[in-house]
Write a structure and sequence with these properties.
The structure holds two protein chains of two kinds. By secondary structure, chain A is an all-alpha fold. Helices cover about 70% and strands about 0% of the residues of chain A. Chain A has one domain. Chain A is built from 21 helices and two strands. Chain A is globular. The termini of chain A are far apart. A five-stranded mixed β-sheet of chain B has the order 2-1-3-10-4, sandwiched between helices. Classes of the chains: A mainly alpha, B alpha/beta. The interface between A and B is large, with 40 and 44 residues.
Amino acid sequence: MGWLDYVWMGVLAVFQGPELINLMGLPIPVTLAMIAAGFLLGIAVGATPGLAGPMAMAIALPILISVFGFSPDALLPVFGFLIGIMKGATIGGAVPAILFNTPGTPDAYMTTLDGYPMTQAGQARKALRVAHFSSASGDTFSDIVLILCAPFLAVLVERYLDLPEKTALLILSLAFIAAVIGGSVGKGLISLGLGLLAAYVGTGEDFYPRLSMGTQTLAQGFPIAAVVLGVLIIGEVFKSLEDLWSEARNRRSPRPPITQSGDQRLRWTDIRRLLPFVARSAVIGTAIGALPGIGSTLAATLGYTTGNTRHARSGARPRFGEGAPEGIAATEAANSSVSGANLIPVLSLGIPGNAAAVFLILAADTIGGFNPGPSVFRFTGDVVNPELVIAFGLFTCMMIANLLNWTIGGAFMRSMGFMSRIPKQILLPVVLLLTLTSIYVQETRMAAIWFAIGFGVLGYLMRRLGMSPLPFVIAFILGAKLEETARQAFAATGGDPFFLVSSPIAALFMVLTVGVILRSTRKSKDLPT
Amino acid sequence: MKSILKAAIAAIGLTAMTTGAMAADWTPPGPIKLMIAFRAGGGADTQARLIAEDLEAKLGWKFIPEQVTGKGGMNLAMAIKDQPNDGSVIGMVVTETLGYNMMVANAGVTPDDFTAITTTAGFQMGIVSTAEKGWTSFADMIADAKKSPLRFGVMSPKLADIAYLLGEAQGVDFNIVSVKGGKAVMNGVTAGDMDLGFMAGIQGKGVAAGDLVNLASALSVPLKQTPEAPTLADLGVEFSADGYFLFIGPGGMPTEARDALAAAIGEAISTDGMKSNGMITKAFGGPALIAGDDAQALVSGDYAAAGALLEAASQ
């Protein structure tokens, strides 16, 4: 079994999987249909201010699992749908940013700076075309980097890292995430600690359930869907409801309609002019995406600033912030190229770096048969490694989604302008109900709903205190893995209490961990924000 | 005492299938809640779900599967204990749950608080390493273990005890690494994080392909796939990892409900062409049915024997 065989089997797993319908003798594989459905839904979701890709992924996941079941056959259709949403939402976010000056997703904020001035100048459709072209380019570039890097990184990890090193690497990743997400390393560490605390309720090696306070309800631990959806989605809904309430008190007057005119097409000369900006931002976005936890908003900011410096030096007009297509290109290419690269730590280490990756790991965990991490990329001799086939199937799904993005994505995206007129007072309760329903679908016990609401309140409070909930969620997901790996490392070294520092690589990781935290504390003291 | 029990079980296991027709009149009072003590998507979970699917197709009974995982099945046991015992709630665990695990958990319950319905399949538990290690026999491995401690992957505390006793009997030290599930042992052994480990049937394909080696049988009998590998008794350990997948219900389930469930499950998994039969034959070497009172006697015996293993391992 060479690696080419695996690539081919992955492609076949997508195209020869169970078929959805037979269209005049042409079987339509269910995975393909799910990618397309997820992609279109993702664009719509991204184009709706107040909704974001991870929200749709969260709500869709339990429903998808109840439809497709827990067999390994379910993996690719579910992944396909989730990846479709992830990619769709990335380009969809630019629509309201350009048309209405409201970013559809947080990372599209920089797009408003040049997108909306272009709309005001009557160039809305052209601005949307620029956004789509740059977003699709960045995304595709990032996926190619993922496909080329993840297998090699995974093989390296598997070959050179033993159990103590893996434990140290997990600790380093968690510390890094706590340090870089949100404004303050202290808040990041609190968020992280709370996540680990929640992960350790009811779990562990002993037959006696720990931290359960004697109740049977806690003995099984917190249901993962209730925690993740509670903190990420319900918390966000609570916060948005509050924002809505305060917004209602200072309502703005509706904007006058703007007439669109001039050449709306994206010409070859435009593309040539934009290409350097797209390329620079794609590299920035990919590099940032490959580090867990930093996220697309910072990538967008960096991409925009770098583009701005270059653009200002060349002295071209219009300048950034006055309706320059280059500004849209620099932002959209950067924030879109995060998504593919973000899967590098997921697939090679099993460490999720952002909310979208969290839901992909959650899907894999719940369905079973695919454990994201270095063991996926084992190129076995005679026996087929089914996980590797799934991994290449996943890459195939991403490439199909990119193809859809290049072909129908642009037109569909430009038709989504109306989504931002959906009133939030209707949208938010619908999201809340859908979230609770989908949690119940997966957990089928009422306690899960109460847990979800409880964690929703926690998520709300964290947002109110300016504490990012993402370290909480990532720590919750990695908590069990961290404990298991640490216990195994301890046992495997024959009970060496200093296993984290007794090998050079593990010791290096631990030094880096301390370094990351110390550096971030120094930095936050320097910048009194 | 133990060998008599084993002989009795073996004999009765063969005749268990004939009890089928006795309670055919019983039908469940409503949908049956099926609790599963295994992670979704694994071999054991698939087995439970396929059995439910077969019974739905064959008898028109309705099942609602639910994962109640953790603590070696003890979470499921504690959850099912106070459910209605009219056959509307059943759960799938391993015999080890009501045996060793229940004894160690010391949670105030004994196997008598549960109704054992029927076993479905036995483990083909082997002590396995990769072929790359170059060991062709158990003795080769022990020779290496004498030079430096080897890492031994296990997936339950009972197996950790057995691994410890095996090391003691052979005069070597194992670094016993405990992981979740046989799949994790296999991944660890293949990746080189562990040198050898227990695998309960999952190793079949790899052994057939020559990538993995069954060094020994962890059962009281030789492995079906590698009959020449020594058993634990041959290696000086008087305990074994014999075990079965087991359907249980809350204590005091009426006999007709218990027997009807056992008969229905038994028939589904031993009928050619049924999905569960195909799966069990492929993964666990065919069905192994011990039903009703015999199943109850089996787990009571395991529970009683757990004390001896604990004592031996803590010396």
